[in-house]
Design goal:
Largest sheet: none
Structural class: mainly alpha
Number of strands: 0
Strand content: under 5%
Distance between the termini: 52 Å
Helix content: over 70%
Number of domains: 1
C-alpha cells in the first residue's frame, strides 16, 4: 500500500469517527428534523447509524493503516471480522429502528 493511501485512509477514518460522534450527540435533533412520528425510535436509529459509522472508521483504521505497519495475523483478521460484524449489526439495527420510527401509529 502506498504511503499516501495510508495517510488518506487515516484521515478519512478520523473524519468518519468525528462525524459519528457528532451524530451520536445530535441524535435528538436529527430525529426531530426528520419529522418521525416515533421520536424515541428515530433517536436510537440515528445513534445506531452513528455506531455503524464509528465501527466502519475503526475497520478502515485497522484495514488501511495498521496492516501497513504490522504483519497480518490471526488477531488482526479477528479484529477486522469483529469490526465488520459491528458495522453490519449496527446498520441493520439503524434501518430497523428507522423504519419503526417512520411508521405511523
Amino acid at each position: 500500500m502506498r504511503p499516501w493511501a495510508a495517510r488518506s485512509g487515516a484521515a478519512a477514518a478520523v473524519a468518519a469517527l468525528l462525524l459519528g460522534l457528532w451524530m451520536w450527540e445530535n441524535a435528538a435533533w436529527l430525529a426531530l428534523r426528520g419529522g418521525a412520528p416515533h421520536q424515541q425510535a428515530a433517536v436510537w436509529a440515528a445513534r445506531s447509524a452513528a455506531m455503524g459509522l464509528m465501527a466502519a472508521s475503526q475497520l478502515a483504521l485497522v484495514a488501511c493503516v495498521a496492516d501497513r505497519f504490522y504483519r497480518s495475523d490471526r488477531f488482526s483478521r479477528l479484529l477486522k471480522f469483529s469490526a465488520a460484524l459491528a458495522v453490519a449489526l449496527s446498520v441493520l439495527c439503524a434501518m430497523t429502528l428507522g423504519i419503526a420510527g417512520m411508521t405511523g401509529p
